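G., before I forget:
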Amino acid sequence: MTKQPKKAVLKSPIRAAIIGVHGYVPPDVLTNAKLAQMVDTSDEWIVARTGIRERRILTGKGLGTSHMGAEAVRGLLKKTGTAPADVDLLICATTTPDFVFPSTANVICDMCGIRDVGSFDVQAACSGFVYALAVAAQFIATGTYRRIVVVGADKMSAIIDYTDRATCVLFGDGAGAVLLGPSRTYGIIDALIRSDGAGMKHLHQKAGGSRMPPTAETVAKRLHYVHQEGAAVYKFAIARMAEVATELMRRNRLTSDTVDWLVPHQANKRIIEATAARIKLPVQRVMLTIHKYGNTTAATIPLCLWDYEHKLRAGDRLLLAAFGGGFTWGGVYLTWAYDRRRV
Ligand code: ACO
């Protein structure tokens, strides 16, 4: 059983509120029908087992994760009327950084004209955005910073083996970004992050890091791609996502009637439905984008917020829950800060 603090962890009267959200998905669509021409699969199998109908792929030469992250951040700054000079910190959650170094956050800042501020990447696979949000919330709650951009961006197509039908149907490319600011009324009330490194054997990329640097041999053996034992990951994902959602509900005295939206990581529609069922939330209050974007890793949750922004009202209670490689998992309970119509 995971160790759990008994009370909510963020005690400051100042909360980090999401005051804007924006997203970017590349224009190229990879449909299930196209995948069925590449590997031995079918639209029926993919839809029935995952809920995915299509995903976006970043194809331009020389374009990495930063391209999508910068598109999302530029749109976010424009939409919220925020000058680059007003941003105090930028955090990018990604598992597919442009480079080993510098960080993708550094690169995005440069591309968006955000200068002389702290910026760094957070690597927690599919839980990356929740982790980054939990970190950013501390800087706002302590009064250290007033404007923080949190980006979740991944170019999964860069590390997917398009001859492996078990993984290539699952992932897509995309980016989402939120702007955080201080509020005494709305914002992040609670967050928890967890990990278990023993999960590595089920989900990892074998080569390309310092343990097995890239060589002609590692490339020939296709070791630079996602290795996933789907069935094992599936079981952990449901258990852990439900666990964080339940724990956040318990320690914040929430019930299935008082949670307005579950915002789950989008890995598999069946995982999402099982998580919602365990906390007794009807599917109408569960954000879903997996059918059109697939699993965009750190980008799934901000892309959900972007997609559903027009439906959200100030005061809505949102439960974010994610699970990913590591294993990592985590959740955030927040109240939404604005009505889209008023922004
Ligand atoms: N098309 C057709 N058949 C397929 C495909 C495909 N694309 N992929 C696998 N199959 C076959 C398998 O070969 C197997 O055939 P067999 O019975 O003859 O051996 C059969 O379908 C069933 O395979 P399973 O792996 O048992 O299928 P399952 O129902 O578990 O679905 C899936 C597989 C979709 C991968 C599921 O296990 C899953 O979603 N796992 C979790 C993924 C996830 O949550 N990842 C976490 C985040 S990722 C990150 O952090 C980077």
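The first helix runs from residue 32 to 38. The CA atoms of residues 20 and 86 lie 14 Å apart.

More on Monday.
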